[in-house]
Amino acid sequence: MIKNYIKTAMRNLWKGRVFNGMNLVGLSVAIACCTLLFLTIYFEFSFDGFHKNLPDIYQTYFTVNRAEKAEKGTAMPVPLGPALKTDYQDIQYISRMGNGGSVVRVGDKQIGQSIHFVDPDFLKIFTFQIIKGNEASPLKNLNDVVITEYSAKAIFNSIDVVGKTIELNLTGTPQTFVVTGVTKDFPQNSSIQFDMLLRMENMPGYQGMLSQWNNQNHLVYMKLNPNVDRANFEKRLQAFVKKHYAEQIKEVKRDGARPDVDGNIMSLNLLPFGDTHFNTELGGLEGQSTSKSAVISLMVIGIFILLIACINFINLSVARSFTRAREVGVRKTLGASKWQLVSQFWVETVLVCFAALVLGLVLATLTLESFKASLKTNITLSMLLQPGPLAGMLGIFILITLVAGFYPALLMQRFKTVQVLKGTVNSVKPGKVRNILLVVQFSISTLLIVCTLITWQQTDYMQKQPLGYNKTEVMSIPIARGQDGNQALQLFRHQLNGDPNVIALSGCYDNLGMGNDGSMRTSVTGFTYKGHEVRTTIQKVDFDYLKTLDIKLTDGRDFSREFATDSNAVVINEQMARQINASGKAVDLSLPMNEIHSRVIGVFKSYNFRSLRTQIEPLTLVLDKNYPINYILIKVKPGSLIQSMDDITQKWKATFPTVDFKGSWLSENTEKQYRKEKRLATIFITSAIIAILISCIGLVAISVMIMVQRTKEIGIRKVLGSSVTNIVLLLSADFVKLVGLAALISFPIGWWLMHKWLESYAYRIDIQWWVFLIAGVMAVAIAFITISFQSIRAALINPVKSLKSE
Fold first, then answer.
1. H-helix or E-strand containing 654?
2. pTM of the shown model
3. What is the maximum alpha-carbon separation in the chain?
4. What average pLDDT values come out for the chain (806 residues) when binned by 10 residues?
5. Domain-by-domain residue ranges, the chain?
6. Please, are residues 117 and 100 in contact by the beta-carbon 8 Å criterion?
7. Half-sphere exposure of 596 toward its Cβ, with a 13 Å CA cutoff?
C-alpha cells in the first residue's frame, strides 16, 4: 500500500512539477532561514548551561534608590566577598572576579593573556573542568596559576605543563607563577572567558583596597546551600548593607531618595547567573549582554517566514487540487475511501516537505558563514544533532506536513463525485480561507517592510548625528595587555615627533566607541558637594586631549605642562558645571573628589562620549596617575588618512615589535556601537525580501488558479468589447483589495512595535506617516505586478480558443 502511494505520488508530483517546484523553492528557502535563525536562538538561550550548579549560582548587585531613578550596578568592593562569607552560613561558596591582563614570558616567548583574579572557590562554583593538575585545590597558594588548554598549547605547545613556571608583570615588577592546573577549553556559549586564573590577592592595588568599601571594581559570585530561599536571603542581607553603608545611605536619603516597596534606600541583591547573559539593565557580564527581546524578535521573524511558506504550501496545493478534481472523482467511483485519498495526498506532501528540508539544509550550509559574519554568532549546523534542536526540527517538519498536507487533502475529498466527473466543480467564488491566508501573508510582509524602514532610519540617524568631537581624522590605538600605557604613549609620541601628517597626539583611559580590541569601560565616582551628592564619569587623559578631538572650551583653560598643579586639577563638561554650580561660574571651584581637593580649571562643550542610546552625562577629565592610559589618540591631516594609517602602523611595529597594532578611526569605533541596530536592520531587510518573494510565489499560483477558473468569463468579456486593460484591472482588483487590507492591519501593529523599540534610545527619530504610505504602496505594487503577468496573459488569449476550451 505504502509503496503504491509513493509511486503514485512521484508520478503526480512530476505531472505538476511547476506548482510543486514553486512549493519546493518557497518552503526550502523558509527552512534554510528558520534553521539559521532558530539555531541562533538556541545558542543564545544555551549560554552557561554547562555549569552543573547553575540554578544555585548568583551574582551580586547593588540597588540604590536615588531621587532621580533607581541605579543598579554589579561592581563590588574588595572586602565585601570575605565579609559575606563570614557573616552568612547560607553561602556554600563565594568568589570575587576581577579582570586584568599581562604579557606572559616563558624563555624568549612573550604572549599577551587575559587574566581573571579569583578566589579558590571560583572553580567550585563554576564547572571549568580541570584536565591536568590538582582538581581539589588548584589555587591553594598565592603564586599558583590555572591556565586553559588553549593557553597551555600557545605558551608551551603542550597541555602537560603542571609544575612549569611563567613570568608575569602585573605591578611593574616581574613575578614568577607555577602552573598548578589546566582547564578544558570552555564552550563558545560561556559568559565567563579567560586565558588564566590567578588568586585575587595578586590583583594590582589589592592590599590598599582591603578596607575601601566605596571602591567598586570587580564582580562577586556565590553558590547558596541547597534549599536556601533567595528572596528571604536577600531580605537578611539588608542588615549587612546597613552595617557597611550607613554613611552612603544617609547621603542618598539627604538628597531625596525614594525608598522601594520594602522601605530600603540601598540593597544588595542576587541575580541568577543563568539570567546574566540577557540582563541588559545591569550590562551583562563584563559590560556585555544580549537583549532577550532581540532574540525573541529573531524567533518571531522565523515563525513569520515559516508561516508564510506554509500558507503558500496550502494555497498552492488548493490551487492544484482543482486540476486534479476528476482524478479524485474517478478514485472515489472506484471505491477509494476518504482516508485513502487523504493518505495519498499526505504522502505527496511528505515527499515535497522532505525534499524541501534537504534542500533547505543545503542552502543553510551554503549561507552559514555569511550569516555568522553578519550576526556575529558562533552557531554550527552540527548543533542540529543535539537533542533540543533535533526534536524541534522533527516537530516543525511533522507540523508542516500535517497543516499543509491535510487541509488540501480534506478539501479535495469533499468534492461531489457526480459534479466532478461532469466537470462542474463550483469554485469560482474565492474561498474565505484562501483570502484570510492571503491577508495574513501580506500583513506579515508589510509589517516587516515597516520595521525595516524605521530601523534603517534610526540607524542612519545615529550614524549621522553630530557627536561633538572630530571622529573622522582621529585614530585610536589600544594599549596591549601587560603594556605600560603611560610609557607606551611617551615612546610613541617621541616616535611621531616631526611627522608632518600628525597634528596632535594624546592618551586616555576610556575609548570613544568600540575599537578593534572590542573593549568598552567607564569609571563613575561620587562625592558630597555643598550638601548634596554629585556623580560624574571620570576620564583619565593626557595633555592635548581636547585639542586632539577638536573639543572647544567654553570657559577657563585646558591642562598645561607649564602648571605643575594641573596634576590635581580637573576640566569638566557643561553638564558637570551645571550640576555643581547651576547659576554661576564653575572655573576655580574646589571639588572634594580626593583628599587634596581638585580645582576646576576649565569647562568644555559637552560631547557624546557614550552611544546615542543615553543622554550626555556629567564628565570630568583628570590627569590622575592612578588611572592607566589604555588608548593613544592621534589626529592627522584631513587629506592623508590612508597614508597616515600606513605610516603610523609601520612606526608602531618599529616601536613595539611584539605588540599587535589594532588602531582604528573613531568613525569606525562609533559605528561599531550600533552593531545591534545594523544586525537588526539586516535581519529585517533580508526577512522582508524573503517574505515578499515567498508571498509572490503563492500569489502567482493563486492567480493561475483564478485565471483558469475564469477563462470562459474572460472570453465572453472580450467578445462583448472589453479591452485588455479593463480585464487586467478587473482580475487584479480583488487581490489588490486584499493586499490593501493586509497593509492597513499591519500599520498599527508596526507603529506600536517600533514605538516601543525607539523608547530605548535617548536620541531617536519620530515615526513619520510616509513610512506607512511607502510600505503600503510597495506591498500593493508588488502584488499588482505579480498578478498582472497572469492577468495580461489571460486577457491576450484568443476568445474563440477560450470559449472552445470551456
1. helix 641-655
2. 0.77
3. 106
4. 58 61 79 86 86 90 84 87 91 90 77 86 91 84 90 87 86 84 88 89 84 83 90 91 87 80 87 84 57 79 83 72 61 62 71 84 88 78 83 82 69 58 49 76 85 85 83 87 80 86 89 72 76 84 91 90 86 89 77 81 88 84 83 88 88 84 85 73 77 75 67 70 72 80 90 86 86 87 77 65 55
5. 67-226, 474-672
6. yes
7. 9
